[in-house]
Write a structure and sequence with these properties.
Distance between the termini: 17 Å
Strand order of the largest sheet: 18-19-17-16-20
Number of strands: 25
Strand content: 5-15%
Pfam families: Helicase_C_3, WYL
Oligomer: single chain
Structural class: alpha+beta
Largest sheet: 5 strands, mixed
Length: 860
């Protein structure tokens, strides 16, 4: 195939060349900038960078120079530093106080000190590779450079103390000092005088960096002076002195071991502090993550059984919550969310604490089972999805709750706290989203999955591991709080049992049971169990993968959940005992016929006149109730319960209450006389209209309640005289979708997006860096779009078709976005050019009127 002039671009053919463009610079020449270092990377390395820092392709950069510029912006660098593990961050901090550029040996010495540490030496290549991969460090091992923005964030200054506790260098500390004062310090240190301040500072720097001479200098100091240095050596390096310092302080000032930076303020120079530290930049270096140690070990069967029992309790709690709100729940606050009073009432109804009630409410909301109804008098209520959820098997219902919890960004642990404007955060209200929550939940459960089956770690070891993986550089350690809440919520939900991850919890993560630590093959020098090693953190599952994992978790959990029962045990004291979960139809009828007296492993129901009357009001007849109890009781129906039902049924409906304003009708005038004579009826203001009718100045509902409080069993009737059957009206919201998680920054790009982005960046970089053929026309500056007339554009395109040359073009799309591309024209006709576009790695057709100009690529 014929080679064309330009950057080795081949003529379009049925098998177009790959989009990968090789190294643009000479491999023997070290890169002079981050852009050149990125240009020398292959596509795999660029993909790793964009995957680790997805904000760099939002939007896709036009070329590698723009990518390097974006990688050096403050917001992007801060985000990248916050996602480093402790040792990688310590490596970056050491580079910030090293020479610029720094050789690998100097960096290693700053991390290991004089004594050396084999673990640090072994872990440093990995940490340095992470920094290079994320474009925070560039250059070869003999010229390591930290990105300037990272250097500014990590380097020491009075306004921003160094995380290593080191002060400025001698040269920086003496920058504002007079030459005469510098010469005095050099002379006091026993060094020869110099002709200028620069050489004097260099001489003093060499003294402080020389271990032998520095030890001799410190040995001649009084004990008080050495104590002052020991207080400053590990930071902060700044101290206060009076206008007339003591003799031991004056001695340090004379030798330059303390340098004035402001009136009354002195600093310990970096070189002197490093000598006192034994050459180490950090007091403690953590090359390996702390182990997540098991605090207790249980049999896996016990863990699974415990977790399954808690999973069933979770389902029962959510069902009870939504049943309590079935006819319309609490009102929505004007600012959104539940009021404190409503949250307390919910906690009492569920018999849990308020934080736990907030968790269940937020979980049901995240799963799409409840929402606000959106009406004028806005209230919370169950959604139509709740009815569908109730019809699913128990294990599938749990999997839906667990999946919603795992991926939700709303954080119930914040309820009751304060936001940035000092407003109280309420359940179901705004301000509860934390983008880091799903990542922390996934990571905590992954750490538990890395332990042997049945092993429950201590919360302290989990938090220590998370702090190593993501050391918080801000004051608020939100990730630690999220981790603590995750451990508690996982136990409440039944993902864990007795602190250990259950079998269905592992399936929910898409994880498998780990091998025994002693059975894991270890590499050279690897003496730690598998859960001690700093392995790469696995990414959360995609939505499709998570759905598959949830289905697998449901299959594992299903055999562990108790089977619903179709019977109860009736007792002579007017109670019924349900020895386990009841079938839904049985539970619904029993909830109307009896009151729940106690819950637990067995639920106790109590029959009362009021509960029996409630069943009769719902349209049941006494015969129906007797048949129901006989069919679902494993014990004979007690005689007291039979008498109770018959007695309430005999009196039920004897009195009829309707709407005149309200009236009472009864065929037994003696009973009406009894009501009128009762002092408790005074508030109803009754009067006789006829021998069998009493009128009341009260609404029918108040009249019904008043008569029932007097011990009667009235029934409501319609205008036609028929008995009204009262049934609970289930209030539902319009169809609602579950709240969308709020991501913590741009999502990690998938392989398709990465491939397209890299092709576009490569092509744009090729267009920006390829030399142009010299012509008489003025050439555009690098990065600018070429400008030519329509006639020149058409002529150049037609010539390129004949010669097979590739062209650099400026193009403006239909949205008005301008870009530059390298194309190989194939055909020009009808106002369009068909060409192989290296940006898209495919043949495309472009309108000529959108081409702003063309330029020929220079020959090789």
């Amino acid at each position: 195939m014929e080679r064309l002039r330009g950057r080795g671009v081949r003529r379009p053919c049925p098998d177009p060349p790959p989009a990968t463009v090789g190294r643009m610079s000479n491999p023997a020449v070290p890169p002079r900038s981050l852009a050149e270092a990125l240009r020398a990377r292959d596509d795999v390395s660029l993909a790793a960078l964009l995957r680790a820092r997805p904000d760099l392709i939002t939007p896709v950069p036009t070329d590698l120079t723009q990518l390097a510029t974006r990688a050096g912006t403050r917001a992007s660098v801060v985000r990248a530093l916050e996602r480093l593990d402790r040792f990688a961050l310590q490596t970056a901090e050491a580079l910030a106080v090293a020479a610029d550029p720094a050789p690998y040996g100097e960096l290693l010495a700053l991390l290991t000190g004089d004594d050396g540490d084999p673990a640090v030496s072994a872990a440093l290549p990995r940490a340095l590779g992470t920094l290079r991969e994320q474009a925070l460090v560039w250059g070869d091992d003999d010229r390591l450079r930290l990105v300037r923005t990272a250097l500014e964030l990590l380097a020491p200054s009075p306004q921003h103390p160094s995380p290593t506790g080191l002060g400025p260098t001698v040269r920086e500390a003496t920058a504002g000092m007079s030459p005469g004062r510098i010469q005095d310090i050099v002379a006091a240190a026993g060094l020869g005088s110099t002709h200028d301040a620069v050489s004097a500072v260099a001489s003093l720097t060499a003294l402080f960096a020389d271990r032998g001479r520095m030890s001799a200098l410190l040995a001649g100091l009084p004990e008080e002076s050495r104590q002052v240095l020991s207080r400053l050596v590990w930071g902060p390096p700044y101290g206060q002195v009076t206008a007339e310092p003591a003799v031991h302080l004056r001695r340090l000032l004379d030798l330059g071991l303390l340098v004035p930076t402001a009136p009354g303020t002195v600093v310990l120079p970096r070189e002197a502090a490093l000598h006192l530290r034994g050459g180490r930049a950090h007091r403690e270096v953590a090359p390996l993550p702390p182990a997540v140690e098991p605090a207790a070990t249980h049999r896996p069967q016990v863990v699974d059984a415990t977790a399954a029992g808690q999973a069933y309790t979770a389902l029962a709690t959510v069902e009870e919550l939504l049943k309590d709100w079935d006819e319309g729940g609490p009102a929505v606050l004007r600012a959104g969310g539940l009021s404190v009073r409503d949250l307390k009432r919910t906690a009492v109804a569920l018999d849990v604490s308020e934080p736990v009630a907030a968790f269940w409410v937020e979980l049901a909301y995240a799963a799409g089972l409840l929402a606000s109804d959106g009406e004028a008098d806005e209230r919370y209520a169950a959604t139509p999805a709740h009815d569908e959820w109730l019809e699913q098997p128990a294990a599938q219902r749990w999997a839906r709750l667990a999946e919603a919890w795992l991926t939700a960004t709303r954080t119930s642990g914040l309820v009751g706290g304060r936001d940035a404007k000092d407003r109280t955060l309420s359940a179901l209200g705004p301000g509860l989203d934390r983008g880091a929550a799903p990542d922390v939940r996934h990571r905590v459960l992954t750490l538990l999955a890395g332990l042997p089956e049945g092993a429950a770690p201590s919360a302290e070891s989990v938090l220590a591991r998370l702090r190593w993986e993501r050391p918080q550089r801000r004051e608020e350690d939100l990730r630690s709080r999220l981790a603590e809440w995750t451990l508690k919520e996982a136990e409440l939900l039944g993902v864990t049992g007795r602190g250990a991850l259950s079998g269905h919890g592992r399936a929910l993560l898409g994880a498998t049971a780990p091998k025994r630590p002693d059975a894991v093959a270890q590499g050279p020098g690897d003496k730690l169990p598998v859960h001690h090693r700093p392995t790469a953190v696995p990414e959360p599952l995609s939505p499709t993968e998570q759905a598959t994992a949830s289905a697998a978790a449901a299959r594992i959990l299903a055999p562990l959940l108790p089977e619903p029962l179709d019977h109860v045990l009736l007792q002579a004291d007017l109670t019924a005992v349900a020895p386990g979960p009841l079938q839904r139809s049985l539970a619904e009828v029993l909830d109307v016929l009896a009151d729940v007296e106690s819950k637990g492993g067995a639920t106790v129901y109590r029959f009362t006149p009021g509960s029996v009357r409630r069943a009769l009001d719902a349209g049941q007849a006494a015969s129906d109730l007797h048949a129901f109890l006989a069919a679902h009781s494993r014990t004979p129906v007690p005689q007291p319960l039979t008498y109770l039902i018959d007695d309430v049924a005999r009196r039920h409906g004897h009195l009829r209450v309707g709407a005149a304003s309200a009236y009472v009708r009864c065929d037994d005038d003696a009973l009406l006389n009894e009501i009128l004579a009762d002092k408790r009826a005074a508030g109803l203001r009754l009067r006789r209209l006829a021998p069998t009718v009493l009128a009341a100045q009260a609404d029918p509902a108040s009249l019904l309640d008043g008569l029932r409080a007097m011990g009667f069993a009235p029934a409501a009737e319609s205008a036609e005289g028929d008995v009204l059957i009262t049934r609970a009206h289930a209030h539902r919201t319009p169809p609602r979708t579950a709240p969308e998680p709020v991501p913590d920054g741009p999502p990690v790009p998938d392989a398709t997006l990465l491939s397209a982005a890299i092709r576009a960046i490569r092509a744009g970089d090729l267009a920006a860096t390829t030399p142009r053929r010299q012509t008489d026309q003025p050439q555009p500056a690098t990065g600018e779009l070429p400008r030519t007339s329509s006639a020149e554009t058409l002529a150049t395109m037609q010539a390129a078709v004949l010669t097979g040359e590739s062209l650099w073009i400026g193009y403006v799309n239909a949205e008005g976005a301008a870009s530059q591309r390298v194309i190989a024209p194939v055909r020009v006709e009808g106002g369009f050019v068909t060409a192989y576009d290296h940006t898209a790695d495919e043949v495309r057709t472009y309108p000529l009127h959108r081409v702003t100009g063309v330029a020929e690529l220079a020959g090789e």
